[in-house]
Write a structure and sequence with these properties.
Length: 171
């Protein structure tokens, strides 16, 4: 690989970045995993890799505000990284897939292994959504015996570096 000024150059895309008040056709160069330059034209010979993105949008990473990404542990869980790779979402807000009883598994096996960022809500149900749709009468939280407020608070505090809120939904 050549040792150029930029690792990657995206040429001719429509850059939309509300934080910069930007909505224009521009080139965007990346070095060391960060945006290095945005300009009307950046010469292709300054980059190791050049991609023509004419007719495409370039945006900051998008945020999917309602997901269930505890793949393999809940019936409605999906894999975050493959979706991120094709959607432009770099952050997923998980809407309460895990409860106090299975949050550590969610953290260790999904959140910490994921390339994209996952911001989880902790479900007030001890089991989260692990039984969702499988146990008749359980629904999401039809049986209030599964609600464990004290344990939810304890786990939310223990994982305060991750947990962004508590999910409460009664079917």
């Amino acid at each position: 690989m050549k040792n150029m000024k930029y690792h990657l150059l995206l040429q001719g895309g429509q850059i939309i970045d509300p934080s910069q008040g930007l909505n224009a056709l521009k080139d965007l160069a990346i070095s060391n995993g960060k945006v290095s330059e945005i300009a009307d034209h950046i010469p292709a010979d300054q980059a190791n890799q050049v991609i023509d993105v004419t007719g495409k949008l370039i945006t900051p990473g998008l945020i999917d505000l309602h997901t269930h990404v505890y793949h393999g542990a809940i019936p409605i869980g999906v894999e975050a990284d493959p979706i991120a790779a094709r959607s432009g979402a770099t952050t997923f807000v998980d809407a309460g897939s895990a409860g106090a009883g299975n949050f550590l598994g969610f953290r260790l096996h999904v959140i910490e292994r994921s390339r994209c960022r996952i911001l989880p809500f902790l479900h007030i149900s001890y089991t989260g959504l692990s039984c969702f749709g499988y146990i008749p009468g359980l629904g999401e939280l039809q049986d209030l015996r599964y609600a464990d407020v004290g344990k939810a608070i304890e786990v939310a505090r223990e994982h305060g570096d991750l947990v962004v809120g508590i999910k409460v939904r009664l079917d």
